[in-house]
Specification:
Length: about 230
């Protein structure tokens, strides 16, 4: 099934038609959702081409010709094909001078996500609701403590700025969306976020952005079509 999304053309790419920019990805992967949110934030025209990981479509010859290691998502336009996060990030940042934005992206990469605690908790608690309810497990307790320390740093930073890097919403915030969405759906981790007023306000604000709403609508449409 092919999703084609037409958006208002961005001033940085105003000569590019929707069919000239394609995003190949799986709506079940956080990395695909991050790039979708970025594209929507920038009002970029693009065509979304679903890749089914469970069906091993990322191992098919056509896909490997774009992404030789079988990684997704892949962002393609007439000039470049990008299959690594650093390349997609540079493309979407629009400016190479955003050092503070890059700094908080690195914080996400090194402390919030692997090898950080967020995804570990999402995996542990989503697969074991009993642990989530009781909150007593050596592995979970350790990751809860680790995430608490990370969120304390975020709380201090968000006490200075509305968003992570400044008072302007940036890609540093966008890249947190998939895992924040999952963490807010788990009682134990939602409590950690809600107990920090600045983190809680930031989380509520960015999860309510129209770009993220569009991403969730795409996921919902996929679930309905598979039902």
């Amino acid at each position: 099934m092919l999703y084609i999304i037409f958006r208002k053309r961005n001033r940085y790419y105003n000569l590019m038609a929707a069919e000239d920019r394609k995003l190949y990805g799986d709506l079940n992967t956080p990395e695909t959702l991050k790039v979708l949110a970025c594209l929507f934030e920038h009002d970029l025209d693009f065509e979304f081409v679903p890749i089914n990981l469970e069906a091993n479509q990322h191992r098919e010859k056509h896909f490997l010709s774009m992404s030789p290691f079988g990684k997704l998502p892949v962002l393609e336009d007439p000039d470049v094909t990008l299959f690594e996060e650093s390349g997609r990030r540079a493309y979407l940042l629009e400016s190479h001078k955003q050092a503070l934005v890059a700094n908080w992206i690195d914080v996400k990469d090194h402390y919030f996500e692997p090898p950080g605690p967020a995804l570990k908790l999402i995996s542990l608690l989503s697969s074991n609701k009993a642990i989530d309810d009781v909150g007593e497990s050596d592995g979970v307790d350790h990751e809860i403590a680790e995430l608490s320390q990370v969120l304390d740093v975020y709380e201090a930073q968000l006490g200075r700025f509305k968003y992570l890097a400044s008072d302007k919403f940036t890609v540093a915030d966008v890249l947190h969306l998939p895992n924040l969405h999952s963490l807010m759906g788990i009682a134990s981790t939602k409590k950690l976020i809600d107990s920090r007023p600045h983190v809680s306000a930031w989380c509520s604000e960015i999860l309510a952005r129209p770009s993220w709403t569009k991403v969730l609508q795409m996921k919902k449409q996929k679930m309905i079509s598979q039902a």
